[in-house]
Write a structure and sequence with these properties.
Elements lengths: L2 E2 L64 E4 L13 H9 L2 H21 L9 H16 L13 E11 L2 E3 L16 E10 L2 E10 L5 H17 L6 H12 L3 E4 L2 E4 L1 E2 L3 E6 L9 E2 L15 E9 L6 E2 L5 E4 L10 H13 L5 E2 H6 L6 H9 L3 E4 L2 E2 L6 E10 L3 E4 L7
Antiparallel strand pairs: 1-10, 2-19, 3-5, 4-17, 5-6, 7-8, 9-12, 10-11, 10-12, 12-18, 13-17, 14-15, 14-16, 18-19
Helix pairs in contact: 2-3, 4-5, 6-8
């Protein structure tokens, strides 16, 4: 999920495990019964392939989840982290193993959801169908299908609303109830979704396109994100990461419908660190050189994401809002009964995790629009409208979550797909 920079604050493993059969679930095979004499093949009904998806614990009965892809720190000032003081660093990392394991659990769910979605997104689908496919699979793997029946609805589940942003819309679009938008062959769609386990959020995204003329746009952004991951590390300045990302992305051109465009970074969109139950932890990772000398620190989680565009390279807030998040909960409740009830419902089911209007519909808050708008106006809830470049432009996004361990970094959301 994207972070907007200061200039636009108002918009705010490699290791893929083999698919295991959950404990207690039998593998199903088609029987080879003999056909009755005279029977016809035409009468035989084609069996649908059964998809078994259950909570992730059934696939990992020992409770140990796969590590992501490991990468060394390449900066000179980080080299001693793998030599003289390695034992001390590793001991400190060992003390955090339970925490890392929860992050890896969320990452494994993210990979499996992606695998389930792979090949199923196609032109002609409504965005609501795609969102349901991703979110319902996430709910099954996290065992969070009905928040109203969970003792603590914020303990696991969806990390933030599924972003399905098309063409010039770079981020923060998910369909509201009744949306009839249909994905077309000529569209470029960013798919950005999150998974959380005990507030540890995995934030990872990729771009879907069907027309090969967009390939260079996607390649530029994917390689820029990979560059950001490579440059990230303990004590690295954020502006230096942005400078490296910008250099790679701007080295690409893309020809669309006979016209050539230089690929530009969306300069007021950023990656970000991730805090418990907060998708934006306070630090922004720029995708251009911006002079920010803030440094990354040991133990931090970062979402390294880049956005490339054929447009102006600057996004603004436009369109109907769908993304929201509660502000710090240290204020008096509103006096109006309807708004007080809605705020209490949001706090119980989402806490400070981002949510969307469809999620309110799902838990029975169908008539929420007036109360929600009031909460936004009064500052209890922050709205995050769609972030849009100029009409007719195309934007792409790639993103991974990384962990800064004492002696190496872990691309925890990395999979075989991207």
């Amino acid at each position: 999920m994207s972070d907007a920079t200061e200039a636009n604050k108002v918009e705010k493993t490699k290791t893929e495990t083999a698919e295991a059969v959950p404990q207690g679930t039998a593998k199903t095979t088609e029987s080879n019964e003999a056909k009755p004499e005279g029977s016809s093949d035409k009468k035989k009904k084609k069996k649908k392939k059964r998809t078994n998806i259950s909570k992730i614990e059934n696939y990992f009965p020992k409770g140990i989840y796969p590590e992501g892809e490991w990468m060394d720190y390449h900066q000179d000032f980080n080299l001693d982290r793998t030599t003289d003081e390695e034992k001390r660093y590793l001991q400190r990392d060992l003390e955090n193993q339970d925490h890392w394991n929860e992050v890896r659990k969320a990452a494994e769910i993210h990979r499996r959801v992606r695998k389930n979605v792979e090949g199923k997104i196609h032109p002609g689908m409504r965005l609501t169908e795609i969102a349901d496919l991703i979110e319902n699979t996430t709910r099954k793997y996290t065992d969070a299908e009905d928040l109203t029946k969970m003792e603590d609805p914020t303990s696991r589940g969806i990390g933030f609303p599924t972003g399905l942003s098309i063409n010039e819309i770079a981020a923060h679009f998910t369909p509201n109830k009744g949306d009839k938008t249909v994905l077309r062959y000529e569209d470029v769609m960013k798919v950005d979704f999150g998974v959380q386990v005990n507030g540890n959020i995995i934030d990872s995204a990729w771009t879907v396109s069907f027309d090969p003329q967009y390939d260079n746009l996607l390649t530029a952004v994917r390689e820029a994100t990979n560059t950001g991951i490579k440059e990230a590390g303990i004590d690295v300045r954020l502006t230096d990461i942005g400078e490296a990302i910008q250099e790679v992305m701007e080295s690409y051109e893309v020809e669309i419908n006979g016209e050539t465009y230089g690929v530009k970074p969306c300069r007021n969109l950023c990656g970000h660190n991730i805090a418990p139950w907060r998708i934006h932890g306070g630090k922004s990772v720029p995708i251009v050189k911006n002079g920010d000398i803030t440094k990354m620190e040991e133990g931090e989680h970062f979402a390294i994401e880049t956005f490339g565009t054929t447009g102006s390279g600057y996004v603004t807030s436009e369109g109907e809002c769908s993304h929201y998040a509660q502000q710090d909960y240290d204020y008096e409740l509103p006096s109006l009964p309807s708004t007080k009830k809605l705020l209490q419902t949001i706090n119980k089911n989402f806490g400070t995790l981002p949510f969307c209007r469809r999620y309110l519909d799902r838990i029975g808050e169908d008539d929420h629009e007036i109360a929600l708008n009031y909460l936004v106006k009064q500052g209890y809830i922050q709205d995050y409208p769609p972030l849009v470049d100029i009409p007719g432009s195309y934007t792409a996004q790639y993103e991974h979550t990384i962990l800064l361990h004492p002696n190496k970094k872990e691309i925890v959301s990395k999979g075989d797909d991207y």
